[in-house]
Amino acid sequence: MRRIRTYHEVGRGEGAGAGVPEQVQAQRQRLEQRLASIRRVIAIASGKGGVGKSAVTANVAAALAARGRRVGAVDADLNGPSLARMLGVPRDPLAIGAEGVQPAVGVAGVRVISMDLLLAGDDAPVRWKDAGEGAESVRQSAAETSALREFLADVAWGELDYLLIDVPPGTDKLGRVLELVPRLTAVLLVTTPSEMARHIVAKSVRQAREAGVPAVALVANMTAYVCERCGHGSVLFAADGARRLAAAAGVPLWAEIPFDPRLGLATDRGEPPVLGMEDYAAARAMHELAGHIEQELAGGVPG
Amino acid sequence: MKFLCVGCDEVMSFAERQLPGDGTMAAIFACPKCGREVAMLTNPMETQLVSSLGIRVGGREVPEQPMEVIRSQLAAGREDAFEDDVASAAAGKVGAAPGAAARIVWSDDAQQRLANVPGFVRGMVKRIYTDYARERGIAEITPAVMDRARRDLGLEGM
């Protein structure tokens, strides 16, 4: 059999090739340059759906901004975007300047990018142009990864103290963020006391640790149900999964946030309760979480 | 991705990319030693897949535009999601470099064709055509210039 040189045996400068690695490298460099002006990048994820990641992201973003921090928020949930609404972002056109796409600005000055700002109509699902040939899932995955890269790299974030990334459910989605931002400052994993949440979020804990993220912490959401009449807290989940996960995995639990329907409604209206409803237990817990983030991540991006 | 001329043991150089307009692509590579040419042909799915990654086979003729993949690949983009390209619009105004966009005229036919481009991507497309014309000293953008730019720049899906 003839001996033909392999790809790796062919020298880098030998022939122009298709230019693919060079373009991928250029994309990475652009992303790194953009993130260089951001002190801390925090992924707020779970692995489990319906645990309140976006609400936690919106409230923590607003709470940090209320402390005078410069905060950006990326809605990485491309197919179920909610962050822009939760942060009260108007649907004005996004300006494109020499530095890139100007982010929308929400409550407390939080800079936001979300697919919700780009879709035609409230009920429009994310659809990519049809390429035919019956390989849409492969195509969709590639397009979504590129879209998230563009959210991070092509938005003129400017100088930020914090960039929060609201990661949709699924460990694969956290993996996508870890690949794009290998130097994440922290991963906050939102969970509930339920055993099912513990089972699923444990996978994300392992994933974040194996990726070498310097700070991995849990946020227990819906730890109690707060009566909107008397303010009394009742058990919502008859389990202790969040604390058990923290103990078993040796992961710190940075917040325990009760569920209060009034705060949920406020967040859905684009009025994060950390701004103006600070007396409520859930809002206080969100503020304490913001304080914890400030304290634990005071050093910014580790070397 | 590289192509090796087996007979010469030479890496072939990218020569040309062609977009026949049916969603497929042909990328031509040539051996610098013997001159032999081969064409890599991709079907619409393969062509779109590469585009979805923000990659141009053979390299880029124009720099990647902000949110290029989203703007060129999203099927249901909001018409007024983006303001018309601020950087492009600013060219030719106060402080702009001499010879910038102000001198480039769009013919009526070209304007009409541009108006048919969805608003979601129109600003980016306009900027690319304007830059193309400026770099080549073209004073008026006509449909023929747009066709040539599409071909030369490999504007898949725009």
How would you summarize the topology of this molecule?
The complex is a heterodimer of chains A (303) and B (158).
Chain A lengths: L19 H16 L2 E8 L7 H14 L4 E5 L7 H4 L9 E2 L2 E2 L2 E2 L5 E3 L22 H18 L6 E7 L4 H10 L5 E6 L3 H16 L4 E12 L6 E2 L6 H9 L3 E7 L1 H8 L12 H16 L7
Parallel strand pairs in A: 1-7, 1-8, 2-6, 2-7, 8-9, 9-11
Antiparallel strand pairs in A: 3-4, 5-6, 9-10
Helix pairs in contact in A: 1-4, 2-9, 5-6, 6-7
Chain B lengths: L3 E2 L4 E2 L1 E6 L6 E6 L6 E6 L1 H9 L15 H6 L12 H5 L14 E2 L1 H8 L3 H17 L4 E2 L1 H11 L5
Parallel strand pairs in B: 6-7
Antiparallel strand pairs in B: 1-2, 3-4, 4-5
How helix-rich are the residues of chain A, as a percent range? 25-40%
Q: Which term fits the overall shape of chain B?
A: globular
The secondary-structure element order of chain A is HEHEHEEEEHEHEHEEHEHH
- Give Rg of chain B in angstroms: 18 Å
For the terminal residues of chain A, how far apart are their CA atoms? 50 Å
Structural class of chain B: alpha+beta
Low-pLDDT windows of residues of chain A: none
Secondary structure tally, helices of chain A:
9
Question: What this model shows, in words?
Answer:
Chain A has 303 residues and is of the alpha/beta class. Chain A contains nine helices and eleven strands. In chain A, strands 1, 2, 5, 6, 7, 8, 9, 10 and 11 form a nine-stranded mixed beta sheet that branches. A two-stranded antiparallel sheet of chain A has the order 3-4. In chain A, strand 8, helix 6 and strand 9 (215-226) form a beta-alpha-beta unit. In chain A, helix 2 (53-66) crosses helix 9 (281-296) and helix 5 (171-180) packs parallel to helix 6. The termini of chain A are far apart. The mean pLDDT of chain A is 91. The radius of gyration of chain B is 18 Å and the shape is globular. Chain B starts with a strand and ends in a 5-residue tail after the last helix. Residues 86-101 of chain B have low confidence and may be disordered. Helices cover 35% and strands 16% of the residues of chain B. In chain B, strands 3-4-5 form a three-stranded antiparallel beta sheet. Chain B is of the alpha+beta class. The interface between A and B is large, with 53 and 52 residues.
